[in-house]
């Protein structure tokens, strides 16, 4: 009989371990603030890298809460707190606004689509799967990809690269491309390599502690099989608006021997964002899974160009794109 | 005769003995070869309430509607029809759940199949009450989708398991109509289940990192229980079911907490099917029902 009770006790204990409580917060300013702070505390991945004392941040902002504050006031307070993370992937999303930390707003834009369209393409260009492309008068190819959220079809890419195959070099312009799907990075890179490359490594939080990370996983890209490749000299144009997946694209292209990065440092954003939720229905997006470049470096604050170039006012007045002109010069030297 | 031949001959002899003995054992409860084992079949539509928490997606518990299409069939087992019963269940569950403030909806779609083999004890405690207990194997899988999320937009669930199965069946009458009251329980004990790590993205899995995705499941990290209580009224050859289903699913792995509970009203229609084919029922046939 005693053994039976012991067995029953063991069964109950094991059942209790499978049933685990999750903290619940009230839908009031304090509950929502605590839910937000805790979501970041347990899931955000760059506290150590950015040397952020998150407990100190909590103490500093929580004292500003009042029981009767409006949703707008709470949103503004929480948004300001999130800016302490200096992270373009961190947003507070409410029905009336989306908070943001867009670092490129503080830097030269270095891109004017109208100048390209009017003075380089003469408003005569092809467009497929979100990629604008043409062979310029200098016989160098130009393709502009403005959004990694637009899926690239392999068939479309065959058509584009087939058309550009007679060009002596290629400019891939990803300025002001705010990112999108990383699968498109692999699709695009696969056309500019002729062998397997070490693209980088990815890790993720494996627990709620600030330093709870899994072992980084090295990942590789292969050349796209049975499709057209472009292995002539390539220049990638980037600016501070080249963010997230675009930042990842630039970091991988930079490691290729026939590729030169021209322009400004990219906007960064190397943490794959996850989303959590507050009791009042607001969403918070944040960096959860860091991706490193092939050398094992985090590119959260951007990828530096091989050749730093800013748009000049004189060139703007003359209808010239300083960065594109530099790219064409580099291709001419390599040709 | 060498040693290998001796072993082979003994193995053949043992096999021959089994072939001879098994049919005798199978005939234990059915002293005629014309034993008919009808299939008690029931198809159900279930509507109820779902409560769903999966902290990979959100720390907020969502609540809403559970819909299920289910099918259950029971049959006395061939090798010992008086004593052993099999139960086959299949179902597809859809949960449409909202957060507390109602500004987001998650969708859960799960498919399951379950087969149980149970020992039957007749007239336990009182005449007409059957108790059944045995083991079962189950495969349950699907996904929970949160369209408002970014790279944690979906939580995939795959859970093969084995465990305990039980049933209590009581036959009575309501007026002139036969009424069968039943309670069916399925309780996975051990198995395996899929789960990404705490904040592991499906993109990382897509890139090839498959380590640590499959976890051994036991009551220390996973607990499931499916209970159905039903009243079946027999209208001629048709059986109508009114019942209640409760499903509890809990798991705690890689600091990811999953808590799913459903309560549903069960409406079903079915009957017993003899499955005797063109030969018809012979005069000395003995029908052994699995449940009624």
Short note summarizing the structure:
The complex is a heterodimer of chains A (335) and B (292). Chain A has 335 residues and is α/β, with parallel strands linked by helices.
SSE topology sketch:
The complex is a heterodimer of chains A (335) and B (292).
Chain A: H1 2-18, H2 29-43, H3 54-62, H4 71-83, E1 91-93, H5 113-120, E2 126-128, E3 131-135, E4 141-145, H6 154-164, E5 170-173, H7 182-189, E6 197-202, E7 217-221, E8 234-238, H8 245-254, E9 259-263, E10 271-277, E11 283-292, E12 307-308, H9 313-318, H10 322-334
Parallel strand pairs in A: 4-5, 5-8, 8-9, 9-12
Antiparallel strand pairs in A: 1-11, 2-3, 3-4, 6-7, 6-11, 10-11
Chain B: H1 3-26, E1 35-36, E2 39-54, E3 62-76, E4 84-98, E5 105-121, E6 129-145, E7 154-174, E8 177-194, H2 202-207, E9 214-217, E10 222-235, E11 238-253, E12 256-273, E13 286-287
Parallel strand pairs in B: 1-13
Antiparallel strand pairs in B: 2-3, 2-12, 3-4, 4-5, 5-6, 6-7, 7-8, 8-9, 8-10, 10-11, 11-12
Explain what the structure shows:
The complex is a heterodimer of chains A (about 325) and B (about 290). Chain A is an alpha/beta fold. Chain A has a domain at about 105-270 and about 290-335: 2-enoyl-CoA Hydratase, Chain A, domain 1 (Alpha-Beta Complex). Chain A is built from ten helices and twelve strands. Chain A has helices spanning about 1-20, 30-45, 55-60, 70-85, 115-120, 155-165, 180-190, 245-255, 315-320, 320-335; strands at about 90-95, 125-130, 130-135, 140-145, 170-175, 195-200, 215-220, 235-240, 260-265, 270-275, 285-290, 305-310. In chain A, strands 2-3-4-5-8-9-12 form a seven-stranded mixed sheet, with helices on both faces. In chain A, strands 1, 6, 7, 10 and 11 form a five-stranded antiparallel sheet that branches. The longest helix of chain A is centred in the N-terminal third of the chain and has 17 residues, at about 1-20. Chain A starts with a helix and ends with a helix. Chain B has about 290 residues and is mostly beta strands. Chain B folds into two domains: about 1-25; about 30-285, OPCA outer membrane adhesin/invasin (Lipocalin), CATH 2.40.128. In chain B, strands 2-3-4-5-6-7-8-10-11-12 form a ten-stranded antiparallel β-barrel. In chain B, a hairpin with a 6-residue loop joins strand 4 and strand 5 (about 105-120). Chain B is elongated and about 65 Å long. Chain B starts with a helix and ends in a 5-residue tail after the last strand. Residues about 10-30 of chain B have low confidence and may be disordered. Classes of the chains: A alpha/beta (about 325), B mainly beta (about 290). The interface of A and B includes residues 22 and 217 of A.
